[in-house]
Specification:
The protein has 378 residues and is an alpha/beta fold. The protein is built from nine helices and 20 strands. The structure holds zinc ion.
């Protein structure tokens, strides 16, 4: 696997420089990259940590907390960057523990100066060559800031993992994005990129869940997410890892994610040693691809008693929840029993107990036979 990576780029032997972080072989460098000017004076910055190995090798970018209420990625980066890592590393790890410092400050998903849009949809779209995907003249400052960061990523990254959180109590997993090609003759290289990315998922070792296939993927702007743009715009292996619930840090999941990232470093030839086991997390490996579905929906408004839990396997026809009115009486069809129409793995249970009709109750991973290497419609 490492050989297919080494073919992409002849790795720089000199130290990396990103913003004010200037890498030193065998050491850590700390600094920041300017993001945007604040109207009250001063500058918003992205924190940068470079773990620079002594030997040449790939550069893995690790990014976290683009949704400001997601903390597990920050902790995972802190735990990964042990004092001995740079001495042992071939290549470099570039960590950006906060892609949305404003949201982190206020404990919110979006930045308070850019509330109208998911920040994870502001990265450049693929296939706008020549000249790339130009920024619109009226681009918001956060998009301009992400473009500056993306340019650094494009110049240095060989691999990327973007760390996120899902619903409270959810099982951890990684999202596998589709790979697009513009012209039929580019299909083999798209297939190759998909294969290398898939191998990186396997090295990470969590449950692998396919993202929505095209055109839903594009409609939702997922090609402009951090990992979507790294994969399809930069053409490097990249994915999103979901590390349990937001607004909290599950240390079992963080420990597993830290091992999983070290296993990716081993797969990429950046660290020595055998893969570490992932302890304490459920992993769904059914031998076929799975995709995410929000299912089943609440058949009536009321109080939901969940029977299913994150990490469980369920069979089609199985009762996964019971609907009750506020007095505790069954409501809706089938005496209030809610059944799943699909067999699969429960990624997470919708938060809360009070639901309106047609609110989704579970996030499930079910069998997927959709094509993941696709022609780009743009
Ligand atoms: Zn997120």
């Amino acid at each position: 696997m490492a050989s297919s990576l080494t073919a992409r780029r002849s790795y720089a032997t000199s130290a990396l420089k990103i913003g004010t972080a200037h890498g030193k072989p065998g050491a850590y460098a700390y600094g920041a990259l300017d993001a945007l000017a604040l109207p009250t004076g001063g500058t918003e910055t992205f924190p940068i940590v470079i773990a620079q190995g002594r030997q040449p090798g790939p550069t893995l970018w690790l990014t976290a907390s683009i949704h400001g209420d997601e903390y597990a990625g920050i902790r995972t980066i802190h735990d990964l960057l042990t004092p001995d890592l740079p001495e042992r590393l071939r290549g470099a790890v570039v960590a950006v523990p906060a892609l949305n410092p404003a949201g982190l400050r206020t404990g919110e998903r979006t930045a308070y100066y850019h509330r109208k849009q998911d920040p994870n949809r502001l990265f450049p779209a693929p296939f706008r060559r020549p000249g790339g995907d130009p920024l619109p003249e009226n681009a918001p400052p956060l998009e301009i800031a992400y473009r500056r960061l993306f340019d650094q990523m494009g110049a240095t990254a060989d691999l990327l993992i973007d760390l996120h959180n899902y619903v409270i109590g959810s099982a951890p997993f990684t999202f596998r994005d589709p790979v697009y090609y513009l012209d039929e003759r580019d299909r083999p290289s798209a297939q190759k990129l998909f294969g290398t990315t898939d191998a990186m998922h396997r090295a990470f070792g969590f449950t692998v869940v396919n993202e929505f296939a095209s055109p839903e993927y594009l409609k939702r702007g997922l090609h402009r997410s951090v990992s979507g743009a790294a994969l399809n715009t930069l053409g490097i292996p990249a994915f999103t890892a979901e590390l349990g619930g937001y607004l909290t840090v599950d240390t079992t999941i963080v420990n597993a994610a830290t091992s999983a990232i070290r296993n990716v470093l081993r797969w990429a030839g950046m660290l020595d040693g055998a893969p570490e086991p992932l302890v304490g997390i459920p992993v769904h490996a059914p031998g076929h691809a799975v995709r995410r579905i929000q299912h089943p929906l609440a058949p009536a408004a009321g109080i939901v008693h969940f029977l299913a839990r994150a990490g469980m396997q369920v069979q089609a026809g199985e009762v996964v929840a019971r609907m009750r009115d506020l007095h505790g009486r069954p409501i809706g069809p089938d005496e209030g029993q809610v059944r799943t129409a699909h067999s699969g793995f429960v990624l997470g249970v919708s938060q809360g107990a009070v639901f309106f009709q047609n609110d989704p109750l579970l996030s499930m991973a079910i069998r997927d036979s959709g094509e993941m290497v696709l022609r780009y419609p743009g």
